[in-house]
Amino acid sequence: MIIARAWQAGNALVLACLSRSSPETFYPVLVRQVRDHLEVEHICPSRNECWHVREAARLYREWRWWEPVPERVVAVRRPVVLRPDWVEIPVPGTVPEEIEKVLSA
Ligand SMILES: [Zn+2]
């Protein structure tokens, strides 16, 4: 499971999923809460099982750990185009490198 980077886009979380076959390519996946469900948007490059939706929903829950997040997840086939006004954040559930250095010092 390789999530390279993450951004906050308003209420949405955007994840850069690395391609397993070509590690220099990544696919943006956007996840946000819409009323009573989570919506995961991306154009899936995978012809087999798509792990992006499941992983995006899991990371969204981790990101919003302090509040209840709906169980239902709906996948939407829509391209996600990265925008410069999105704020880069640490990938949820990971410890940023700088903090890791301090902790292990
Ligand atoms: Zn996918």
Structure overview:
The protein has one domain. The chain is α+β, with helices and mostly antiparallel strands. 19% of the residues lie in helices and 33% in strands. It is globular and about 45 Å long. The chain starts with a strand and ends with a helix. The mean pLDDT is 89. The protein has a six-stranded mixed sheet, covered by helices on one side. Bound molecules: zinc ion. Zinc ion (ZN) binds at residues 42, 44, 46, 50, 52.
- Backbone structural class: alpha+beta
Bound small molecules, deduplicated: zinc ion
Q: What best-fitting shape do the alpha-carbon axes yield? A: globular
Summed over residues and divided by their number, the pLDDT gives a mean of: 89
Helix content: 10-25%
What does the oligomeric state look like here? Answer: single chain
The low-confidence parts are: none
Helices, by number, come to: 2
Computed over alpha carbons, the radius of gyration is 14 Å
List keywords for this structure.
binds zinc ion; 2 helices; globular; 33% strand; 105 residues; alpha+beta; six-stranded mixed beta sheet; 6 strands
Summed up, what is this model?
The protein has 105 residues and is an alpha+beta fold. The chain has helices spanning 52-63, 97-104; strands spanning 3-9, 12-18, 26-34, 37-41, 73-76, 87-89. It has one domain (3-104).
Strand-helix topology:
Layout: E1 3-9, E2 12-18, E3 26-34, E4 37-41, H1 52-63, E5 73-76, E6 87-89, H2 97-104
Parallel strand pairs: 4-5
Antiparallel strand pairs: 1-2, 1-6, 2-3, 3-4
Bound molecules: zinc ion.
Zinc ion binds next to loops.
